[in-house]
Automatic annotation (TrEMBL):
Top-rank lineage group of the source organism: Bacteria
Keywords: Membrane, Transmembrane, Transmembrane helix
Protein name as catalogued: ABM domain-containing protein
Alphabetical list of InterPro entries matching this protein: ABM_predict, Dimeric_a/b-barrel
SUPFAM superfamilies in alphabetical order: Dimeric alpha+beta barrel
Keyword presence, Zinc-finger: no
TM spans (from-to): 125-143, 149-171
Disulfide bond found in the keyword field: no
Length: 188
């Protein structure tokens, strides 16, 4: 029988801090990472805080060399005891996260849920909303300064400027605005 390949795995969880417990929860998270560091197969950890004040959430990621090492950590008495000590510092459920949750917004669903691709029309609208203002600015400010360029070179210049802007700034900005609008609409 062939042996299955062994790959590193990461588990991530998110906990909402009680308003007066953000610093204590951060210390608790650092202590959890230190405890995991001593477990066989541990590779690394990541700890971050999202939000501020009443909406502060602690995100903890722990990586192990194999899924068996992770499973062993999850069954360990040290982990169970450490998790029990967090209940006084947090509110709401423990939310398991996937890799997709770290870069997810309205287009991917809520953390802990399976990501679903948005409808094509929604993607097209997001790209158009990011592209249109950038194209207007480019065509009114930059392209008039390059009047004698051949069409192919002019297109090369414009796409070399537009595509990176749209991918790294425009579409993420549209997603953030879209998320805010969706949150406001769902709160009403």
């Amino acid at each position: 029988m062939t042996e299955l390949a062994k790959f590193p795995v990461t588990v991530a969880v998110r906990r909402r801090a009680k308003p007066d417990s953000v610093d204590a929860l951060m210390k608790w998270g650092r202590d959890l990472c230190a405890t995991a560091r001593d477990h066989p197969g541990f590779i690394g950890s990541d700890l971050s805080v999202r939000g501020q004040g009443a909406t502060s959430e602690l995100v903890i990621g722990l990586s192990f060399d194999t899924s068996a090492s992770l499973a062993s950590w999850e069954r360990s008495q040290r982990r169970v005891e450490h998790l029990a000590s967090s209940h006084m510092l947090t509110e709401g459920p423990v939310i398991g996260m996937t890799v997709a949750d770290f870069d997810r917004g309205i287009f991917g669903g809520r953390p802990g849920q399976v990501a679903v691709a948005p409808p094509r029309w929604q993607t097209a609208v997001a790209v158009w909303l990011a592209l249109f203002p950038a194209a207007v600015l480019l065509n009114s400010l930059v392209m008039p300064r390059l009047p004698n360029l051949p069409v192919a070179l002019s297109t090369l210049v414009s796409t070399a400027l537009l595509v990176p802007f749209v991918v790294w700034a425009g579409v993420p900005t549209v997603h953030r605005v879209w998320e805010r609008v969706a949150r406001i609409c769902s709160a009403e």
